[in-house]
TrEMBL record:
GO terms for biological process: protein N-linked glycosylation. GO terms for cellular component: Golgi membrane. The chain crosses the membrane at residues 12-29. InterPro entries: Glyco_trans_34, Nucleotide-diphossugar_trans. One of its GO terms (molecular function) is glycosyltransferase activity. Belongs to the glycosyltransferase 34 family. Keywords: Glycosyltransferase, Membrane, Transferase, Transmembrane, Transmembrane helix. This is Alpha-1,6-mannosyltransferase MNN10.
Amino acid sequence: MSGFLLTKYARFKKPVYFVVMICFLIFWIRDDGSSSPLLEHNRVKHMGKQLERSPASLLNRYSRSDVKELGGKTSGSTSWIRSLLSWRGWRKDPSIVIILAANEGGGVLKWKNEQEWAIEKISINNKVAYAKRHGYGLTIKDLTVAKRYSHEYREGWQKVDILKQAMREFSTAEWFWWLDMDTLIMEPEFSLEEHIFNRLNNLTDRTLESFNPLNIETDIPYIDYTEELNLLITQDCGGFNLGSFFIKNTDWSRLLLELWWEPVMYEQKHMVWEHREQDVLEALYTNEGWIRSRVGFLPLRSINAFPPGACSEFSNDKRYFYNGEERDFVVNMAGCNFGRDCWREMQLYTSKLEEKNSRWYNRLFF
């Protein structure tokens, strides 16, 4: 009987092998390991030794040859096979736009070293791959030296100007997602719709009753929590955190941005506010009911999880820290340049990301 079955189905062996091989080739082409412009500069010298900036496979995955660099030049063209297989629909007017700000000038307090440049490149490519995957817009703004910020560390204050510029550029977008450069999207398959916007009512806290690290007064007049949410932020152990947040493209938001960087208030208080734009927003939220009415607080780990070492005085509080097993969406290495090692943290989380998102056929054949 077994011989009969083998004879009967032997004729299907070659077609089955052919189909399997075609499927493998399709997956392999989609995830090819061809060299990228980043790999040519993927090594830095430290103490006389050659060090890799990041895993080569990670750079291959996140560097797309058809993506424009900051200077506006392209690094090459994508093959028609890859373009066809990776096409997921093209939106001329995206409803969600991711905003990144890259400091090409190298900083105000000091010049960026090679590891910092590498961190910036990895972060950018991480967001490019995510935006391409879900059909979101992505704009990368240059933190140029602006005269009105030239007397201090300017990046925080310039955030407001960049948001206003993005709203003019993408006038039909519904939401803007600001991400700092020291963030990494750890779950690229999560869309913002399913992860955030489709369950806002269950995710957001509007009254500060569940978590209020700044002890802000909750009972002030002229608050209407029935108004729609226009600003989605998180709080950490020190107060508001603007390393990752959402702002809606509305007249309310534009008015908030005008007030957020109001020249007279800035001139009087910019030397007092230690955390710059975050302190301004905290002050506006504390005193203005019309602003508080449209602000919602997301759990920190939903879009802004911290690595160990941040908020060190709360090291046992699970609300703050990244948990890969629970699939936290974004890790934010905020403050890594103060007593921590930014490069080691970026290496750690890029390795975790590579491991989490490696393909089954890579594990079998490579």
